[in-house]
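Rather than argue in generalities, we reproduce a single protein record, letters for residues, whole numbers for local backbone shapes, just as it appears below:
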Amino acid sequence: MKVLMLNYEFPPVGGGAGPVTCELSRHLVRLSHQVDVVTMGYDNLPDFESRWGVNIYRTPALRCRPDVCHTHEMTTYLPGALPKVLQLSRQRKYDIIHCHFIFPSGPLAWLTGKITGIPYLITCHGSDIPGYNPDRFTFQHKLLMPPWQFLVRQTPQLVAPSESLRNLILSQAPHARITVIPNGISCNFSPAPAKQNSILLCSRLLPRKGFQYALQAIKQMNLDWPVHIIGDGPYLAELKRLAADISSPVTFWGWLDRADQRFKNLFETSSIFIFPSEAENFPTVLLEALSAGLAIITTTAGGCPEVVGPAALLVEPQNPQTLRRELEKLVASENLRKQLSQAAQDQARKFNWPYVTQKYINCYKKIIDGT
């Protein structure tokens, strides 16, 4: 099968949807399928490279940072990528186009499908769904609602990684054809036999990620455990201001590529992972925390409970008091941390990429066959 992957973000650029696209492409190639990826160019990354047998094409676009892409930057993906996508489609005669995000990638998949006749599907990742993260895209979602509805009606198959996101889509578009396929995780972490007494947080630094509530909870505890924060974003300055009043040493590592050894070490050696987000689809970072055997505290928001299952302590979003009580339990009990660590590794095995890849292959076949 010949597959064209479209995503404006692809490692080492972007957030959780980039690694999802990357891992799915790699596992499709391992099963002898051919995969080309067309993504947004950035900085001095090469226009073309082949990695793991996946051909990666980067097309002209405007983007200032690897970790955050603003709306006006996203819009440059369509005109920059369209000529390359049409050229490749005519040369390679793909069996299917797999698009990630209704916006900004969806119009590219729809237009290419209309011109070439190649069927396509779209995997939604959260920010492309109205109502998912109103802190960033409320105006854009209102402005784009008519074309969003059009794309949802025209798309043969939408994929949502969680039931939570599927329900949100259906609340906006009851006519949508949606199937649920979870994101996968490659269990490439080796949890340290003896974890350090440290706390880890990792994400884009946005208000809705809730890191401010974790810092407020830690401040109330007068805790001396080191706190490590991986990520960058517009909320960094405010988080640093909050961290200045905390007795625990707080280290801001900035944005780290997942291939960076520091990223791997922090996940493997830390004891506790806090992810206090207010709105999530199927967060890759929670899959990584499960794989690394971390004792996890996360919220009941969106798809977080679907990801962690019984392998985490759950709290309501925006509630530093409840978060503090759960964190106190973990800090006080090494046995509880060990129990959650083992449960996390067991839960991670449910999202192995061979299983997820086969689900997508089955989906591709149904679309190609028109069933």
